Amino acid sequence: MFNDRKFTGQALLLMLLGVFLMFFYAGLQTDHLNVLTPYLQATYGWDDLAITNPVTAAAIVSIVLYLVAGAAYVKYGVRRILVPSILLLALGCLGIALAGENYAIYAVSLFVVRALVVPLLLGAFLLAANWFIKYRGRVLGIVTAGAPLFSIIGIAAMNWLANDVGLGLNVYAVIAAILVAMVLVAAFGIKDTPEESGLFPDGADHRPLSEEQDAGEPITVRQLLGEVRAWQLIVSYGILQFVIVAMMAYMAVRYISLSTPENVPNLFVSEALIWLSVGAASGIPMSYVIGWIDDKLGSIKASLVLNILFFFAVVPLAVMPVGGSEVLMVVWAFGVACMTGGVPTMHPCITTYVYGRKHFMAANKWIMTIQAVPMAFAVAFMAAFNDAGMLTNAYYVLIGLLVVSFVTILTMRRIPDANAQDRDYAFAT
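The structure assignment produced for this chain is given below.
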């Protein structure tokens, strides 16, 4: 990859942009609620559902948005969709900053923010799939480090700016300014594919061997939904995505519910947030390790490892005692980092593994649309358990779902890699 200077320069810029795309995808999907929810509760007295209902509504709309954005990416290319999407996302953040206690402005702005993270994710996925085959897992391992990075510095920085510095909701104006800078990079610094720059994936000197006989005919939705392998992908990674959204939205609420009078200001801010930063730091290299496993052993084995790591995030919160446990918080924080970095790494990897570089987005737009249906209700799922005073039980349900996803991934063992000729497997897959 680094033998071609022209490819190296564009690839490094693409990876840098990808890190920021994943940083704000993870942060503005649900993670920021861990700062926003306690702030709005304390400042305006709003309850959980009033604060999060716009997120749930936007998540429902995102079911269709995955399909629409995916189709638009296929038809118009990455930059033509990504640039205006980031601009609209910046406007949504600015709306939250200016909303104050005007609930209507707040709700519309938060709705826009939650919905417009979808093109960020799809854009990062498609760029990586277009530019890399042999190094796809490792590159995505670097790009998706942006997700746990938000857990390390994003939540802490937002909490510090909003509360200690006193910016309050104006912290979202800072985020909007960063997003505008990203627009400039996306508009003028990258190309949709290496072929547009006279290059080939991975910096190779020839077109991919696995695509020599590929006519590039699109996959129809009827073909896709009639395949067992599509439903295996939908179920397994649909569960993993549902668990991420549920876990990330209710981290703070869970720890606040476990706080004692000695936990000042509360268990999440005083203790758990510290361990989250430490755990997320270790999760960043784990994202790369998972990507390396994908490159060397294949996406199925890497997905099984990732599924196991999910238990490290969920089980500690299920058994966490009142007042917290440092050992369990360390395990939880490590699991969260691997979870938030691992799924964005592996979802495009396994979809490309099954359908190949040329058919990735054609398949992915339908797969992610269907997966978005249960994911849209993940926050409401946690809120319902919390309102019923049974939040602990929600984590046991999530554990059961992870068992289902693990078994589903196991059934995918015999699916071949569509781009196997251009991969560099160290062992048989």
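Interim note for the steering committee: The chain is about 75% helix and 0% strand. Residues 7-198+220-418 form a domain with the Growth Hormone; Chain: A; fold (CATH 1.20.1250.20).
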